[in-house]
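This week, think about what follows.
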Amino acid sequence: MKYLIIGGSIAGLSCARKIRKFEKDSDVVILSEEERPYAKMSLPYLLAGEREIWLEVPAGVEFCGQKSVVKLFPDKKKVITEQGEEFVFDKLLVASGAGAAVSEFKGSASPAVFTVRNLSDIQGIQNRLKKARKKKVIISGAGLVSMEMGDAVQKLGFTPLFLISSQKVFSMILDDAGSEVVTKDLKEKGAEIHFGESIKVIETRGEEVVVETQSGNEFTGEVVIIGKGAIPNTAFLTSSGIEIDRGVIVNDFLETNKKGIFAAGDVCQGYDMVYGEKRVNALWPVAIEQGEHTAMNMTHFRIPYKGSVARNIVTAFGNTLFTAGLSRGNELETYQRREKRNYSKIVVRDGKLVGAIFINVDIDPGAYLFAIERKAEVAGFKDVMLSGSLSYTHLFPFLRGA
């Protein structure tokens, strides 16, 4: 059997490792745009010099770096790379990840403008900062990556200046109260935050870069970092006949509409347990889960994937955030607790936990995720959950079959 994996990040590597565990003699080949595998989620930490990013290729797996797939032929069971090479397969995993979402504006191609998706981005930022004089970095957006990059540049002695088109930080995962807690703390720690500001023009003047916003304001720094999310890498699938929405649509077994072709990770649009629909949950732990599960279904098993739950754990500017499920909305039954830099919120639907936010509260994230996934009845546990004290002991009745 010949297994081919497109994408050399954690979803592809997890799948390859699991396949090799089940089958010792089959061929397992990974095609990756990168020369060697690394954890893209760790790029902000690499900038700050706090973490290694390299990932290990499983033993017995052939890793082919600098191979960008441009065409897939499902019926012929082959792919073609940018170099014109052909790779054939019996079973295929599409784990091509996602690329940075970049807004189009005048000056977006400036050498002072960077996204945060590849190692070359971090190397470019580092080279630019070596020549910096104003000690200010302009960051467009206030999501997870933007905040982690802001934290990293501040640790390097630079002032992060956030330009935020909305009216709150972490707008995709925090409610208004949670955003207020973080915003207040960021300002106290020296970050500059400007709401309602979208980039219109970027002009490079020597070693400086000037950003003009739609409102007419100007901001000056040495580097502009665009942190506006990511878009699944699906361009090479355009004429393949594989069903694509925002990402690659998969069934309950993480298989596409083409038999023998599966998807996992940031490119995969699979079932979300809380929303009850197919969504792209571009998250490290979800990529691992899906990669390992596709390996089972690509080899000897036929096991439905239970689905994923959107969740995030991030530490930035000394604040630790955990969010899960339907964290933002207030249209359901919600309970909140706020004290200075600490904030707790749980969201309940039909007596079951479906969302949570914890800022600077010591919790066991696994217990809260378990409660959401198992649709645990939370009557009588509301105070326990808000305090961050929920444990598997409280959920003992739901542990059967875990």
